[in-house]
Fold:
Amino acid sequence: QVQLVESGGGLVQPGGSLRLSCAASGSIFRFDAMGWYRQAPGKQREMVATITNGGTTDYADSVKGRFTISRDSAVYLQMNSLKPEDTAVYYCNARGRVWQYAYWGQGTQVTVSS
Structure:
C-alpha cells in the first residue's frame, strides 16, 4: 500500500512563497516519476511540475521561473511569486513511466489572496 502525504499548504498573500512537501511510504526512487498537480474549483486537474527517477524536471508554462520541484527522501515544490490564480488544491503524485500505475495524496489547499 503506497501512501503519499502532502504538507505545507496554507494562505499566502500575492507575491509570497510556500513550500510543499510530499512524503511517501518507502523510497521515492522506486517510482518512475513523481510530481505535483493542482485542481482549482470548477477546473480540471492539471500538471504543475514533475521529476523523473533520473532527475529530469518538467513544468507547466504558467509556473516556469516561479516554482521549483526537488527531492531528497521526499519531494518538494518551492512556490515563489505566488499569484491568485495559483489558488488550488495541490496533489502529490507517484506513477509509472506510462501511467501503468499511479498513486495520489489527499491534497493540500493553497490559497493566494490579500
Observations:
- The two ends are 40 Å apart (CA to CA).
- The mean pLDDT is 96.
